[in-house]
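User: Okay, second chain of the day. Same drill as before: sequence in, structure tokens out.
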Amino acid sequence: MAEAPRGTRAPLAATGPHVLRQINNTAVFTALRQAVSAIARVSELMTSTGLSRPAVTRALADLRDADLVELVTDDTARIGRPAQRARLRAAFGHVAGVDVDRHKILVKIANVAGGVLVTHRVNTPPRTTGPDLPALISTALEQAVAAAGLTHADLWAVCVGTPGIVDRDHGEVVLAPSIPGWAGLPVVPQLRDQLHCPVLIDNDVNLAVLAERWRGTAIGVESLVFVQWGERIGTGLIIDGAPYRGAHAAAGELGFLDLGLPPNDPTGRPAANEGTGPFERLVGAAAIHELAVAMTAGGRDRDLHAQLTAPGERDIAPLFAAAAAGSPVAVAVVDRVAARFAQGLGALILLMDPEQVVIGGGLSRAGDTLLDPVRRHLVGRTLSSPTEVRASTLGEDAVALGAIRHALDATAVRRVASIG
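Assistant: Same drill. Structure tokens below.
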């Protein structure tokens, strides 16, 4: 009889040999998919699943018969009979990960092993609103699928990452302040009807934190905070190796933290607009630009002030370049921003006590010019030794990669469980 992985318990109604065999197949397939390069020896699969050698061997035979796995000889062994390795047939299935916001749609097509085949980016037209997005997403997906040499029939699933609070059970965006008219639209049913495959939707930052733990700077980290820092501020949480979303899918909304600063705070605290939260209005990109303009005025740094106030210019990259070059005023601006950010982040660290914090989004491109002051201002704000703070290495790929991972987790295992 097939055995369930050690330490797991099947539902009471699922006790027959056939069901246990499905459980073993799923466990071996999942372990193989998560192995480096999606290839592993039987002994390695035994360790990662907790199954016996006969159970792993039977599962691999089932997966091979279903064309999901191929067995290859390992000729590196110097003593004894050559061992066998199992390798996923990566081209057997494909998924799409989509990152959508008001300004762009980024699509990645990947195989069942998570290998990205195509990345396709489309800038959305000016004044794009929520009702415009489903058609734009569909077109971008069609272009990406064609570029990968596939058809919609080859897709196991599509996962869409979006700003805002998402009801994953009903496939609906509940609140999306940054995209007018986006909340409440039947996005999932529309895309499902067009693509004829499962469609998933999730908050973009919740997907990004999956990507950081899968392919980024936090591989294998069990307790993780990911902060997307740009115009808006979003937070994704991993607790004990699993994503944490909260009772209403609104956990970790750092951008809406109110630090209760006095009205005459030197940052100015601009009035709420477009649904921004108090912390976003304090340390978001727009607030940083406003602070930098104010602190460089009056001849304190004429060159930087001119760059920041050029017609139509809202880019804050010159601020960090000037700080890296040693401009005293720029350094002072960055230090003040870092102090404010550390005040909010410190509160989250006190609650979470994470192993690591990863900063993503546009502000992460400033690197240690910004993060070193943040680390310095965090000292003394937590009860344990300073939490490790790193910049994301995934850039704008994080959300789409997380969407790929979520799509594979949700659908690949379901397909394997149906074998036999």
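Residues 110 and 233 are 28 Å apart (CA to CA).

User: Thanks, on to the next one.
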